[in-house]
TrEMBL record:
<feature type="domain" description="PNT">
    <location>
        <begin position="1"/>
        <end position="69"/>
    </location>
</feature>
<keyword id="KW-0238">DNA-binding</keyword>
<protein>
    <submittedName>
        <fullName>ETS2 protein</fullName>
    </submittedName>
</protein>
<comment type="similarity">
    <text>Belongs to the ETS family.</text>
</comment>
<dbReference type="GO" id="GO:0043565">
    <property type="term" value="F:sequence-specific DNA binding"/>
</dbReference>
<dbReference type="Pfam" id="PF02198">
    <property type="entry name" value="SAM_PNT"/>
</dbReference>
<dbReference type="InterPro" id="IPR003118">
    <property type="entry name" value="Pointed_dom"/>
</dbReference>
<dbReference type="InterPro" id="IPR013761">
    <property type="entry name" value="SAM/pointed_sf"/>
</dbReference>
Amino acid sequence: DPWLWTEQQVCQWLSWAINEFSLANVNFHQFLMSGQDLCNLGKERFLELAPDYVGDILWEHLEQMIKDSQEKTQDQYVESSHLTSVPHWVNNNTLS
């Protein structure tokens, strides 16, 4: 979950993305921040920190990871809410 990243994890993601997408001219110092700060930037401010086109690629990837993380969290919530909604009259003996 990008919201929970440390500064080091933000740098690791940035380094990975630069290599994965063959990006150039990214100033790592611009992105020395926590994941929460990174996600709170919003698209406009984020794009100001990176070169043209490069920023768009990085933002799209970050946005997708945030979305995936939120969907995973929602799925886990739904699964756990189903488990806790088992009627109280069901006991362990009837589940085996």
